[in-house]
Amino acid sequence: MPQPWSAPVAPAPVHATVAIPGSKSITNRALVLAALADGPSTLTGALRGRDADLMFAALRALGVPVDVDGETVRVGATDGLRGGGAVDCGLAGTVMRFVPPAAVLADGEVRFDGDPRARERPMGTVLNALRGLGAVVEGDALPFTVVGAGGIAGGTVTIDASASSQFVSGLLLSGARYDKGLTVHHAGKPVPSMPHIDMTVDMVRAAGVAVDDSEPNTWRIAPGPVRAVDWVIEPDLSNATPFLAAAAVTGGVVTVTGWPARTTQPGDAIRDILARMGAEVTMADGALTVRGPARLSGVDIDLHDVGELTPTVAALAVCADGPSRLRGVAHLRGHETDRLAALAAEITTLGGAAEETEDGLAISPVELHGGPWRAYADHRMATAGAIVGLVVPGVEVDDIGTTAKTLPDFPEMWSRMLTGAN
Predict the structure, then answer these.
(1) Backbone angles phi, psi at 354, to 5 degrees
(2) What DSSP designation does 404 have?
(3) Residue 124 burial by CB count (10 A; 0-12/13-18/19+): exposed, middle or buried?
(4) Fewer Cβ neighbours under 10 Å: the N or C end of the chain?
(5) What does each C-alpha distance from 215 to 153, 167, 186 come to in angstroms?
């Protein structure tokens, strides 16, 4: 077991400028599109973290040449994907949901497995969709095997993607390579994290694929080649949120460089959330600056489209001077861990008042004390503990190393932020 990490307390309001590594979501979408492209592609500013490393290995298992040099990744063209390999998904939803729709194009069996918690995450939606499109898949959750036949008919499929937008995105990324293309209909409760689907559609179009999303809950992908693209990866805005939260909870000032003027990343929503909680938020010269208030206000907010921000917002809420209600995030029970149960449990362990609701959390302001904060092998739970630890002495995060999923150097970045050295 790793040694607990003593979350550092901010001795004064935080003042720092921070550069954030590339977006996991954009990196792993770009990698899948590059693997299916008609020529070599280069990714600049790519994430180097566990999720991206797992995607590199997954594509290599399918016979795709992937050369990594720091944050520059070169993906070579192939004459077709290769079967016979094994894919380790770890805890990466983008690997377990994006790679199987590509693996049906391989020329043999591709075996998938992952971490113990990954075996509990829902997979039936995408696997049944692939069966409906003509693929052979053995199993309904990790571990499972895709029996590739070098191609797939494609066509139309109806799914319930209310548990994860990744079910839609995974299919859309590979759909152009199916013989008949692909039409995906969603039938069910609203799809969570719709900005992630918008991101996928934008990137698929950038790769020269025709996408029709004019009808609600329906996406049509025309069959045809995927164009090779040299991708420039934006900073991961969701990974920026703990650093911006540091300014908010300490009354300090934090600037994140490289903030895009236009983006489909859900993390961009943190600007409005922090403003609603009393922070001053400004954009200038490609950078976002947050100035924390004397006291944070509680917030009643629907996070359905930006559920990945929930751990950061929950950490802000326990530092606020009024109650908060986080709504629309029941789907978080199926993420790396049950994030709603985990947040309620860890906040309560520190003496806080947090209760699960049907679709989120209710958090009331209570003075907290130090103690253990479990990360549950979930990077966003770990960073939430770090935020709380800025203002609550004695918080001990049991596995800060899990942040390597998307921020391989988080403890050092956090330390530099506190000294103003970033």
Answers:
(1) -140, 130
(2) G
(3) middle
(4) N
(5) 23, 18, 11
Give CA–CA dist 46/23, Å, rounded. 7
User: Contact, 373 vs 395, CB < 8 A?
Assistant: yes
Locate the domains of the chain by residue range: 5-20+237-419, 24-220
List the CATH code of the domain at 5-20+237-419.
3.65.10.10
Residue with tokens 């479990």: 374
Answer whether 5-20+237-419 and 24-220 agree in fold. Answer: yes
Question: H helices within 320-409, ranges in order?
Answer: 339-349, 379-389
Token pair in block for residue 331: 């789907």
Residue 192 is given by DSSP the state S
Look up residue 223 and give its two tokens: 């069959």
pLDDT tens digits, one per residue of 323-380: 999 999 999 997 778 999 999 999 999 999 999 999 999 999 999 999 999 999 999 9
Cα-Cα-Cα-Cα dihedral sign, residues 167, 170, 173, 178: negative
Secondary-structure class of domain 24-220 per CATH: alpha beta
d(CA 73, CA 233): 11
Burial label for 252, CB within 10 Å (0-12, 13-18, 19+), is: buried
Residue 347: name the closest of 326, 318, 376 by CA: 318
CB-based contact 295:156 (threshold 8 Å): no
Q: pLDDT for 101-116, tens place per residue?
A: 999 999 999 999 999 9
Catalytic residue among 308, 358, 396, 412: 308
Residue 396 annotated to the active site: no
Q: What are phi and psi of 281, to 5 degrees?
A: -125, 125
Q: Are 91 and 98 in contact (CB under 8 A)?
A: no
Sheet holding 353-356, edge to edge: 300-302, 324-327, 361-364, 353-356
